[in-house]
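Convert to structure. Protein one:
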Amino acid sequence: MAMERDEVRMSDTYWRQLEETDWVFRKMVRRFVKERDKVAVAGISLPGMLILHKIIREGEQRLGDLADELDFTSGAITALSDKLEAGGFTVRRRKEGDRRTVMLDITDKGRKMAELNSNIGERCISLLFEGFTEEELVQQSHFYQRIISNLEGFSDILLKLVKENAEAEASPNLEQKPRAVTKKSNYLSY
């Protein structure tokens, strides 16, 4: 009996730690995006600069590939590309032989602007990770890779749960697992 109580306490403690970790993680992501989005170089946001550096490194890019490789939505890539092109930093062209494929390439103006401001990316990294030991950085990289792995199928799993909850509500005769009573939490969750 005492052991069961310890397991429940440990489970409650573990859950509280999960909630705190989730809160801190989401707060960190929101803060990063908020701060990042305040920065523009010649009217171009930092994600736009990322696109320019990728083109400099690897040559012209398909818009769909940019979205996949940089983890942006296709809408975000289109908006960033519009802004880069309007500023004269990139040019879009249709691929020969496949007019459906849109390629994005950098202009001389874009190359000069990116090269002039190449120290901004380095400073971003040092500002974020300054003060961590090399061992802590290795651990962080490992933890971030695990989180990235945990995100595989994240939306599909949650959407399936949403559907199951809606079906359970629509069919009260279906047996549903009892839900745990939610205790007051110190952290806001979805």
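Protein two, convert as well:
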Amino acid sequence: MGDLWCLGRSTGRFESQLYYTVSPLHGKRQTYVCEVKASAMSTGVVLLNFGEPATPERDRVVDYLERIFYANADLEEAESEQAARQRSRKLAERRAPGLIEEYEEIGGSPLNEQATHQAELAERALRDRGYDVTTYLGTQYTEPFIDEAAEQAMADGVDKLVGLPIYPLCGPSTNVIALDELDAAVVDLEWDVDQDAITGWHKHPTYNRIRAENIAAFVDEHGLDLTDEGTALVFSAHGTPQHYLQEGSRYDIYVEEFCDVVSSLLGVEEYHIGYQNHENRDIPWTEPEVEELIEDIDAERVVVEPISFLHEQSETLSELDVELKEEAEAVGLDFYRVPIPHDDERMGELFADLVEPFIAEFEPEYYQYRQCQCRDEPGTMCLNAPRE
């Protein structure tokens, strides 16, 4: 009998080739190729998004707004569920004309189209790593809804389900509610499937580099200098009701620490943070409002980076590019808005990094994941939880 060496194996996870060299006691060495097919678990990754109407039809916009207001109905006291629904409908009908005008002005929202592309990038990156993965887009307030994504994953027969909100800065009305809806959809389907959930992930190094390098490329393209005293860097974050912060949400902390890191990567010592608030209810929101902030800036120009968003949508294309620009120019400021790097090819690798521990089934803590405190449910991990 001769000796046997394994020379190598191909990188495919589910179908591999083993190369062996046999050296008999007498005669020539011969190399054999053995095809090995291994069964493996299939995984569905649901990328959870907010969603926006792609076209400005009134009925579609009102229904969209009503879903948003009802999901946050606990911000106001209501005598009953029916009263909460009626109040949500009233708020939606009051807000709809203005939002329809915004959608008409920007030609409809590109959010869902861009989110679909990001799901495709994530699937391609994970499959390139050898995983049997299918990605699904599930949005909170427009089609395709989160329950539809779960239903499709079940029909596809995946063995495992991972929920990944595409909101890097974790908040209760975004990341947490979206994951709760995914859980509810699985329960409604009576689907016995292994589940994992990821909440906040703004601390991933690749994400920080993507945002910082995107800003740097933009200012370079426009011949700007962020260290110039005449140029002010403004981080515009999506606002949130103070109610959520008082209940323990760390959203404002995430905003502040992320802005601090990105500005450091840019070599900028002084910057400003403002919030885009939607004050449809008579309740306090995060401060300062970005509109008020702009009015008090002592500079010649502002460079605005919308840090809460991973897609272009009404909050960027209308609230910033139209409304905030008008306010900036009214006080004599030149206005520059950094575009969202939604189509950066590294996004796919970023999302693959985030879900890989749950697919490869090694301890997520190895990638610095910890039990989420914003959503203290078993199997919910994040990169944001404070170290004890």
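Residues 1-39 have pLDDT under 50 and may be disordered. Residues 3-37 form one domain.
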